[in-house]
What does this fold into?
Amino acid sequence: MRSPWLNKLSVILGPRPPVSWLFLCVVSLLALITVFGSSSSSSFDSVTSTWVPENYKNYRRLKEQAAIDYFELRTLSSGASRQRELGFCGKERENYVPCYNVTANLLSGFKDGEEFDRHCEVVGQGKWCLIRPPKDYKTPLQWPAGRDVIWSGNVKITKDQFLSSGSMTKRMMLLEENQIAFQSDAGLTFDGVKDYSRQIAEMMGLGSDSEFLQAGVRTVLDIGCGFGSFGAHLVSIKLMALCIAGYEATGSQVQLALERGLPAMIGNFITRQLPYPSFSFDMVHCAQCGIPWDKKEGMLLIEVDRLLKPGGYFVLTSPKSKSHGSATGTKIRNMLTPLEQFPEKICWSLIAQQDETFIWQKTADSQCYSSRKQNDVPLCKGHDASYYQALSPCIIGPSSKRWIPRVSPEDFFEDLQGWKLALKNYWSLLTPLIFSDHPKRPGAEDPLPPFNMVRNVMDMNAHYGGLNAAFLEEKKSVWVMNVVPVTSRNMLPLILDRGFPGVLHDWCEPFPTYPRTYDMLHANGLLSHLSSERCSLMDLFVEMDRILRPEGWVVLYDKLGAIELARAHATQIRWGARVIDIQNGSDQRLLICQKPFLTK
It folds into this structure.
């Protein structure tokens, strides 16, 4: 006799259930077993089962466990965690930099040097893929050893390029079997960077380069920086030196400088303004940088003038000419002749000349601007827009006052204290042990804390530059590229005035740098901010993966909805990811990610 339950089932399904229905039941049961059996290995594993540092214990509470369980069930029900992982790009993209495609630029009609400039609008979005490191890529050495020795397999430079390089900084390189070593100043007695820096200081009337800070020189823009040796020396004497150079497919100055752990980014003196506000730097330096300063009716020098603060210095070192009758000597004289006349038209004065080095100083006296002659460069009128705008034929005078956002000392102090605490918590989480499925580095064991070299840091939404200030307070051996999104409140003048490197950037576009150049990416509130823009969040994450080194870290702080979506994208690009409930009663969450060392 059948049970009442079976009788009811027969009424619903008939005397014999369809085979297809039975098959569906079996499949559904297996799926449930698989889902709940694998949930323990999800990226939302309970953090109580993982070792955590003591200084982060306040974040580990029962409430977090409940929140994580909720996130996991919600994510599983939506299927977000089962999205397909992205594939890898081909070998030809190992050193790919978007927006710098000369062939496409020429086909689009750009010419007269503009084809070498940045044009993100030319190349459309292709298929998403992840850029693999070169076959011989190795984890960079810890700072400061990594400043003087880098792995040759990490950068794209040929032996012929190395042997043919002839600038002052390039001559300081030694090529070994699988390393590139940069000579220190200690063994140099002639034409060394330290001697060169001291010469500049003496030409400025200083006793030595240790007096740069006393003379008001704290921030330096180094154009065409070779491979960063001058910048490395300036960093050693507590100056902020930012290297810029044009895009180079091989032998890149910017790529080698970043590999050494020095501030650098791609930037061209061709047809557009650089993405910095007016009055940003105390010194602009060019040593054999290859810029034709005598061309474009002086507009390249006008751009230098825009970037210089009143009283700032322009240092130009031209190539030496062994023969005054040579073609090189004639070319140099042709370039320097207008430089002897044009600076007076923009209120500069030549304060010193020694050998091939010239130093001009921009006046801080408004009298020069008010008593202009007819042939002098006119003063600009209107707003100073400096995000890749066309070069300007006018100069910024005293009437065009630089806008500085007002922040009270109390806000500064509160901001710094908050970031010091946040940094302490971030730093305690930068360990592979936070991920239960962290892949080991190929051929090596995980090193001791801090577990990998964290030297190059990018704050993608820098606000006041508080994270940078906290790193300095805690004496961490890092530098921070402070990025101010163009659609947010422009705090970049404030950041630069604090002596920190920074830049304006539109995060709907790729960042002007080479692959694998940053150890840590941080963003506070950026994802929510971009949700109202035209940007694709997946485009952003693929770009972050491009510029992040293998085993590099990502720290995102944002609203719950944005963090949930970010975690799903992190899974697609093969990052380890962990959501942290910070227990402050808000809907804000912390997402910690690490990019694995994957070669195939």
Notes: The chain has a mean pLDDT of 79. The domain at 61-81+406-437+447-595 is CATH 3.40.50.150 (Rossmann fold). The longest helix spans residues 409-429. The CA atoms of residues 206 and 214 lie 9 Å apart.
